[in-house]
Amino acid sequence: MNRRFVTVFGGAVLALSVAACGGEGAGGDTEESAAPEDLTIGVSMPTQTSERWIADGDSVREQLEELGYQVDLQFAGDDIPTQSQQVDQMITQGADVLIIAAIDGTALSSQLQAAADADIPVIAYDRLIRDSENVDFYVSFDNYRVGVAQAEALLTGLGLRTADGAPGEATGPFNVELFAGSLDDNNAHFFFDGAMDTLQPFIDDGSLVVKSGQADIEQVAILRWQQETAQRRMEDLLTSSYNDGSRVDGVLSPYDGLSRGIITALQNAGYGAAANPMAVVTGQDAEIASVKLIDDGVQHSTIFKDTRLLAEQAVVAAEAFLAGEEPEANDTETYDNGVKVVPSYLLPVETVYRDDIQTALVDSGYYTAEEVAAGQTDG
Ligand code: BGC
């Protein structure tokens, strides 16, 4: 797992300056002269069923431990009461900062109130926590841009657009189906908005046809981002809308796990054979199983979000709070959580097609070539 650790920031220097500045303004019972060893960071991650959150959790923990902090890392099994309980416990056990990737962005208000009462700064990790004034900072990627990139990848795969953004040779009409993530995840809305703003002109001019007619986020959302639910929905769509000999040409999928469910449904219906090519299916997270599918020419694309860099931003923000400072934001407008605009640090995203696997994922040390070939990591 060490290869996932990037020492880009001057860790030791920062740790020393934190110790020197003391914990003024930081949470819990931070002493003036608290050393990292005496400080605990609570890290609450949603689930271990998706590889990306395991990588996030590991990265955050490794980077914090490298700086000398105590880390309480918990995964909540995609169960809201479990996450609430885990965060409650971090607070009662005296966490000095909380880093939270919420399952349901609206379900942690009372925990966040307790954190505020105990003067514990809260950093929302990748998923914005909504409806609470007690969210102090947000680290994420440019989530609207993720949706745009997914839609662009779909258009590129269908030939309606070239990879560098010029109009493509194809004219369509192409049948497409749309999927969105979990409605209780703020990101799902940003992804879908970015995608639909990009696809709508093509739907309007008839080059894309959503044959099922299901194009509202409420109709296409997949609760908890479950792969099996996506597979079932794709099976249902094939039965209800494609039993007349027509085919699905493309599927907008916002997450690799959903994409694998969708691909399974399509394969079970005969897609992927020479006479019936696989539909163009997008994705997100560069999960290793999907990277292999892309390498094998089955899945069309994914969006790479380097969890090492996101973890690093969370750590930088935590250290700023511990030093009694405000973390540096690069966006102070986009993320209104219903109560306030949460200052954010957003990272860029990268579309990965088959030809990009080597440069984006292997050369950067995210995966080895062997892992890509095997479709699994070495743990
Ligand atoms: C994350 C995505 C991820 C999805 C499902 C979202 O909040 O931003 O990267 O694919 O959750 O885990």
UniProtKB/TrEMBL annotation:
* rRNA-binding as UniProt keyword: no
The upper taxonomy is: Bacteria, Bacillati, Actinomycetota, Actinomycetes, Jiangellales
Task: Work out whether the entry's keyword set contains NAD.
Answer: no
SUPFAM superfamilies documented for this protein = Periplasmic binding protein-like I (SSF53822)
Top-level taxon of origin:
Bacteria
Q: Which PROSITE patterns does the entry link to?
A: PROKAR_LIPOPROTEIN (PS51257)
Q: What is this protein called?
A: Sugar ABC transporter substrate-binding protein
Q: Which residues form a coiled coil?
A: none
**One function term, GO molecular function aspect:** carbohydrate binding
Q: Where is the Periplasmic binding protein domain?
A: 41-326
- Which residues belong to the signal peptide in this entry? 1-22
Source organism per entry reads Jiangella ureilytica
Q: Which GO terms describe its cellular component?
A: outer membrane-bounded periplasmic space
Subcellular location field: Cell envelope
Name the InterPro entries for this protein: Bact_Solute-Bind_Prot2 (IPR050555), ChvE-like (IPR049784), Peripla_BP_I (IPR028082), SBP_2_dom (IPR025997)
Chief location bin: other
Q: What keywords sit in the KW lines?
A: Signal
